[in-house]
RNA sequence: GGAGGCGUCGCCUAGUCCGGUCUAUGGCGCCGCACUGCUAAUGCGGUUUGGGCUUUACCGUCCAUCGAGGGUUCAAAUCCCUCCGCCUCCGCCA
């Protein structure tokens, strides 16, 4: 959530942000009026309550008729206090409900527009010219099947569409990727964390995933728990309701978890292979830092993502997303998109968001320094989303016979092997 | 799944049975000041968090906050209910 003080002082800035997101601008005035009512009814409650407390102190000392009349007066006051309290709570709830619907303030440098209006910041590496090499590249599923690495048929048989098995070198490849990613993160000072993958509504809502994207989230009604779509959720909620001494910041965590996504509304998109699936594993970077540090930290997260993709020797581009494509929490977001040869385009592999104080306010996470306590800033960034990384690796590093070259950085985690080769007898 | 115990403002803790200056006790830690060759010790003061008002600083003041939410009452840390968390035991189980 945003700072109510900012809303009162500079409502135009909030209106402009809502407009850039393509969201409801009217929320701003509704919230201003609810906040005004919350404050005025709160003041009335405070005054009545102060009077009630004073009166209450007199009662035990009073005797006889005096006591009777005091009790009668106190009874009236008690009713008035209760009414004022109810009124205040209603106004507060209304204000809170509206506040939770406001998106984060869009960063001034974020391009304005929708999904199509992203800006390409840079391109790193060069896509291979398969025509010049004299062969037509196989797509990742064909390669995965040749290698005995990916089995989507049985995934569909057992769990439905968009599920898969990773087998043999596929399974080993995932473990190597995860280990290599954790190794990079650890070297950079991150604390590795294995997180709970089922979380309570407060964690989900606090992270900003129960708004427009709620349909994309798996929910277990019997237990009132959500399956996380990313370890960002349990990592953000890790310090929920805490006050962290500023001297301990930044706190950098590298989470590893499965990610569950319903992919509602993506029917027919990326149906082949494992590019878009209901469940995948991911190494995620998550940082708690001082608000003044957030922008610099965002650049660092992006740099770590670039380092990772470069170490995998993948050609990729960095884009900055437009205001309408940020999601509720982010003020600014960069994606790294790897080249997918058989699609002839760059596709998202990682994403890093500066959520400023937005999540921290919802999750009640503050920092304490000489100035006092205030919400800190949180940021997140993908290090390795396993399935999409496998897609990019297989397709970009394939050889004419269907084997796949292993980039140097992964070899130590694959028993030193530098080549994945087709199995003599596929798993079918 | 069953039975029981516990949850107090950083940590420990008094208070809860029997509702009323609890405006929450004391210790430790921490901050400030004083004293002191230095350090230590000692003394005094301060030290939960949030909201409102005061000009959105300072100062001041009021209200809320004893795991969370509701209820009873003129009045709730204290009585009742629901929930959450932790611990112990029994059962089941990877």
UniProtKB/TrEMBL annotation:
<protein>
    <recommendedName>
        <fullName>Serine--tRNA ligase</fullName>
        <ecNumber>6.1.1.11</ecNumber>
    </recommendedName>
</protein>
<dbReference type="InterPro" id="IPR015866">
    <property type="entry name" value="Ser-tRNA-synth_1_N"/>
</dbReference>
<dbReference type="Pfam" id="PF02403">
    <property type="entry name" value="Seryl_tRNA_N"/>
</dbReference>
<keyword id="KW-0963">Cytoplasm</keyword>
<comment type="function">
    <text>Catalyzes the attachment of serine to tRNA(Ser). Is also able to aminoacylate tRNA(Sec) with serine, to form the misacylated tRNA L-seryl-tRNA(Sec), which will be further converted into selenocysteinyl-tRNA(Sec).</text>
</comment>
<dbReference type="InterPro" id="IPR045864">
    <property type="entry name" value="aa-tRNA-synth_II/BPL/LPL"/>
</dbReference>
<dbReference type="InterPro" id="IPR033729">
    <property type="entry name" value="SerRS_core"/>
</dbReference>
<comment type="pathway">
    <text>Aminoacyl-tRNA biosynthesis; selenocysteinyl-tRNA(Sec) biosynthesis; L-seryl-tRNA(Sec) from L-serine and tRNA(Sec): step 1/1.</text>
</comment>
<keyword id="KW-0648">Protein biosynthesis</keyword>
<dbReference type="GO" id="GO:0016260">
    <property type="term" value="P:selenocysteine biosynthetic process"/>
</dbReference>
<feature type="binding site">
    <location>
        <begin position="348"/>
        <end position="351"/>
    </location>
    <ligand>
        <name>ATP</name>
    </ligand>
</feature>
<feature type="binding site">
    <location>
        <position position="380"/>
    </location>
    <ligand>
        <name>L-serine</name>
    </ligand>
</feature>
<feature type="binding site">
    <location>
        <begin position="277"/>
        <end position="280"/>
    </location>
    <ligand>
        <name>ATP</name>
    </ligand>
</feature>
<comment type="similarity">
    <text>Belongs to the class-II aminoacyl-tRNA synthetase family. Type-1 seryl-tRNA synthetase subfamily.</text>
</comment>
<feature type="binding site">
    <location>
        <position position="230"/>
    </location>
    <ligand>
        <name>L-serine</name>
    </ligand>
</feature>
<dbReference type="GO" id="GO:0005524">
    <property type="term" value="F:ATP binding"/>
</dbReference>
<dbReference type="InterPro" id="IPR010978">
    <property type="entry name" value="tRNA-bd_arm"/>
</dbReference>
<dbReference type="InterPro" id="IPR006195">
    <property type="entry name" value="aa-tRNA-synth_II"/>
</dbReference>
<dbReference type="Pfam" id="PF00587">
    <property type="entry name" value="tRNA-synt_2b"/>
</dbReference>
<dbReference type="InterPro" id="IPR042103">
    <property type="entry name" value="SerRS_1_N_sf"/>
</dbReference>
<dbReference type="GO" id="GO:0005737">
    <property type="term" value="C:cytoplasm"/>
</dbReference>
<dbReference type="InterPro" id="IPR002317">
    <property type="entry name" value="Ser-tRNA-ligase_type_1"/>
</dbReference>
<feature type="binding site">
    <location>
        <position position="261"/>
    </location>
    <ligand>
        <name>L-serine</name>
    </ligand>
</feature>
<feature type="binding site">
    <location>
        <position position="382"/>
    </location>
    <ligand>
        <name>L-serine</name>
    </ligand>
</feature>
<keyword id="KW-0067">ATP-binding</keyword>
<feature type="binding site">
    <location>
        <position position="284"/>
    </location>
    <ligand>
        <name>L-serine</name>
    </ligand>
</feature>
<dbReference type="InterPro" id="IPR002314">
    <property type="entry name" value="aa-tRNA-synt_IIb"/>
</dbReference>
<feature type="site" description="Important for serine binding">
    <location>
        <position position="382"/>
    </location>
</feature>
<keyword id="KW-0547">Nucleotide-binding</keyword>
<feature type="binding site">
    <location>
        <begin position="261"/>
        <end position="263"/>
    </location>
    <ligand>
        <name>ATP</name>
    </ligand>
</feature>
<comment type="subunit">
    <text>Homodimer. The tRNA molecule binds across the dimer.</text>
</comment>
<keyword id="KW-0436">Ligase</keyword>
<feature type="binding site">
    <location>
        <position position="277"/>
    </location>
    <ligand>
        <name>ATP</name>
    </ligand>
</feature>
<keyword id="KW-0030">Aminoacyl-tRNA synthetase</keyword>
<feature type="domain" description="Aminoacyl-transfer RNA synthetases class-II family profile">
    <location>
        <begin position="139"/>
        <end position="407"/>
    </location>
</feature>
<feature type="coiled-coil region">
    <location>
        <begin position="74"/>
        <end position="101"/>
    </location>
</feature>
<keyword id="KW-0175">Coiled coil</keyword>
<dbReference type="GO" id="GO:0006434">
    <property type="term" value="P:seryl-tRNA aminoacylation"/>
</dbReference>
<feature type="binding site">
    <location>
        <begin position="230"/>
        <end position="232"/>
    </location>
    <ligand>
        <name>L-serine</name>
    </ligand>
</feature>
<dbReference type="GO" id="GO:0004828">
    <property type="term" value="F:serine-tRNA ligase activity"/>
</dbReference>
């Amino acid at each position: 959530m945003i700072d109510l003080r900012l809303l009162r002082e500079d409502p135009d800035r909030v209106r402009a942000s809502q407009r850039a997101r393509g969201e409801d601008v009217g929320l701003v005035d509704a919230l201003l009026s609810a906040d005004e009512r919350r404050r005025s009814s709160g003041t009335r409650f405070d005054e009545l309550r102060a009077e009630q407390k004073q009166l209450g102190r007199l009662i035990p000392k009073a005797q006889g008729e005096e006591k009777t009349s005091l009790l009668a007066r106190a009874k009236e006051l008690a009713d008035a206090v209760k009414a004022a309290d109810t009124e205040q709570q209603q106004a507060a709830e209304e204000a809170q409900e509206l506040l939770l619907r406001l998106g984060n303030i869009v960063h001034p440098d974020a391009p304005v527009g929708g999904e199509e209006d992203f800006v390409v910041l840079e391109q790193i590496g060069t896509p291979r010219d398969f025509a010049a090499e004299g062969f037509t590249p196989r797509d990742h599923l064909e390669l995965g099947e040749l290698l005995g690495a990916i089995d989507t048929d049985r995934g569909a048989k057992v769990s439905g569409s968009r599920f898969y098995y990773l087998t043999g070198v596929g399974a080993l490849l995932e473990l190597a990727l995860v280990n290599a990613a954790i190794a990079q993160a650890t070297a950079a000072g991150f604390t590795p964390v294995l997180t709970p993958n089922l979380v309570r509504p407060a964690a989900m809502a606090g992270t900003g995933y129960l708004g427009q994207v709620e349909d994309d989230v798996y929910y277990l009604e019997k237990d009132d728990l959500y399956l996380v779509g990313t370890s960002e959720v349990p990592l953000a909620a890790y310090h929920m309701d805490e006050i962290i001494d500023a001297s301990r910041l930044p706190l950098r965590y590298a989470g590893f978890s499965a990610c569950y996504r319903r992919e509602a509304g993506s029917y027919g998109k990326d149906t082949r292979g494992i590019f878009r699936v209901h469940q995948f594993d991911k190494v995620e970077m998550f940082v708690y830092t001082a608000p003044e540090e957030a922008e610099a930290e965002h650049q660092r997260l992006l740099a770590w993502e670039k380092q990772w993709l470069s170490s995998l020797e993948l050609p990729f581009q960095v884009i900055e997303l437009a205001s309408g494509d940020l999601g509720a929490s982010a003020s600014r977001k960069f994606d790294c998109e790897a080249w997918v040869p058989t699609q002839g385009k760059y596709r998202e592999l990682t994403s890093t968001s500066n959520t400023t104080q937005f999540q921290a306010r919802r999750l009640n996470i503050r920092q304490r320094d000489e100035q006092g306590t205030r919400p800190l800033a949180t940021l997140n960034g993908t290090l390795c989303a396993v399935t999409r990384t496998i897609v990019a690796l297989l397709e970009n590093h394939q050889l004419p016979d269907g084997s796949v070259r292993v980039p140097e950085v992964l070899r130590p985690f694959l028993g030193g092997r530098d080549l994945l080769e087709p199995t003599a007898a596929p798993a079918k």
